[in-house]
Write a structure and sequence with these properties.
Layout (H helix, E strand, L loop, with lengths): L1 H12 L11 H15 L1 H4 L6 E4 L2 E3 L1 H11 L5 H5 L5 E5 L44 H37 L4 E4 H22 L6 H21 L1 H6 L8 E4 L1 H14 L2 H12 L4 H27 L3 H8 L4 H9 L4 H24 L11 H8 L7 H24 L1
Antiparallel strand pairs: 1-2, 1-3, 4-5
Helix pairs in contact: 1-13, 2-6, 2-17, 6-10, 6-12, 6-15, 7-8, 10-12, 11-12, 12-15, 13-14, 15-16, 15-17, 16-17
Length: about 400
């Protein structure tokens, strides 16, 4: 028992490399600026005021717009722009432009160093404008949000898909999971139902999120529900296939599935999924990228579980009659998090690069969304507009370089 505790504590001690103090200052600074710009994009670059008074009452339009985006409500932009003549005590954002704001006095690719047609230095376009007169600085700030959301969501979805599959395959192997025929049939039908409802929701159908994820939750908790409701006694009386017990070669299935994904070109899968989903919002792009990234998470998780499942602290947990669910997620998984953190850093950078590539090719987000890739694509229209390529290109480079350096440092 003492050896088991020592082994577990020794593995936990290895995670001291993940301390923020061990990360170079320049990486922390770059990531802080990026995350800060992503979180507070509406407060840093917005044509709506940060604060104003309307009929003597204090309003916070920029914050209201952020809340509306989070809730999925209609934009408050038209509401406040209709009352612009009644606003008093106005406090504007540092960049008084939204990424879609068109400055008709500064159209046609105005350089950061040119004389600009503005009334006040606060209205200056510090990084220039594009062909339509849209502010590049505002696009850079809101592009940081797009990169952050797509990168984080893609890794989150890939983690949710890949880690449980890799953990189950590594822990149980090919002969560790036994399931009745009826349960196998129900899980298959529920999983297909969940995938169909998820597809409909992504295509824009008005379906409740609870209804979409209910079949998935039933797949996860179906064995527990059957055990608690004593339906297993009834299943034993069912004829033929429904009452038979099957051994699922989970490890073999996962390895073959990973081989299928790795044998196909990622670009081919990406274009095929884009054609299937049609509409390409940030969540859709992140989910498509996650479908390409999950095999990496599953592979590393499986490898860690294969090396840890016979360790002393796992044997000690079995002696204490811990459930297999607790052993997997509270004993083994915390000790397998080191490679998962590393590949998460690489995964975020890969997702950002993929989204930028899609936007550059015109296959990414819609025209109402500004990203670093779409700004680079706009730079092709007029090659002398160097600022259209330099600033977004440098942002993509420095973020990806910082994340890859972080991954190398942690590895």
């Amino acid at each position: 028992m003492i050896d088991a505790i020592k082994t577990k504590n020794l593995r936990k001690a290895d995670f001291s490399v993940f301390s923020p103090k061990s990360i170079p200052l320049w990486i922390r600074l770059v990531l802080f600026v990026w995350i800060f710009a992503a979180v507070f994009a509406d407060q840093l670059a917005n044509e709506l005021p940060l604060s104003c008074k309307i009929d003597g009452k204090r309003h916070y339009p920029a914050i209201a717009e952020s809340i509306a985006k989070i809730r999925g409500d209609a934009s408050v932009r038209l509401k406040y722009r209709g009352n612009i003549d009644r606003m008093e005590s106005i406090v504007m954002a540092p960049i008084p432009y939204s990424p879609q704001t068109i400055d008709r006095n500064n159209t046609g690719f105005v350089s950061p160093f040119e004389d600009q047609h503005i009334n006040d230095w606060k209205q200056r376009h510090w990084l220039g404008t594009d062909r339509l007169g849209r502010d590049i600085m505002a696009g850079m700030i809101h592009g940081a949000r797009v990169a952050f959301v797509v990168g984080m969501l893609a890794v989150f979805f890939a983690f949710i898909i890949g880690v449980p599959l890799g953990a189950a395959a590594g822990y149980y192997g090919d002969r560790g999971i036994f399931v009745r025929g009826l349960v196998l049939l129900l899980k298959t039908l529920l999983l297909l139902t969940w995938l169909y409802l998820l597809y409909l929701q992504l295509m824009g159908a008005a379906i409740s999120g609870l209804l979409v994820w209910l079949p998935f939750l039933l797949v996860v908790f179906l064995p527990f529900l059957i055990r608690k409701s004593r339906l297993s006694l009834l299943i034993n009386r069912l004829p033929g296939f429904l009452s038979r017990t099957f051994s699922i070669p989970l490890d073999l299935i996962l390895l073959r599935l990973i081989e299928v994904f790795r044998s196909l070109p990622n670009l081919f899968i990406l274009l095929a999924l884009l054609a299937v989903f049609g509409q390409t919002g940030m969540t859709t792009i992140a989910l498509i990228l996650a479908l390409l990234m999950w095999p990496t998470f599953a592979r590393y998780t499986r490898a860690e579980f294969l090396s840890l499942r016979e360790k002393e602290f796992v044997s000690a947990a079995r002696l204490f009659r811990k459930s297999e669910f607790r052993i997997i997620f509270t004993d083994i998984l915390p000790n397998a998090k080191a490679p998962l953190i590393v590949i998460s850093a690489f995964g975020i950078s890969a997702a950002i690069l993929a989204e930028s590539t899609l936007s550059f090719l015109g296959l990414g987000l819609g025209i109402d969304q500004v990203s670093w890739g779409s700004m680079l694509s706009e730079a092709r229209r007029y090659f002398p507009a160097w600022w259209m390529a330099v600033f977004p290109g440098f942002a993509i480079f420095i973020i990806i370089y910082a994340l890859n350096s972080l991954g190398d440092r942690l590895r």
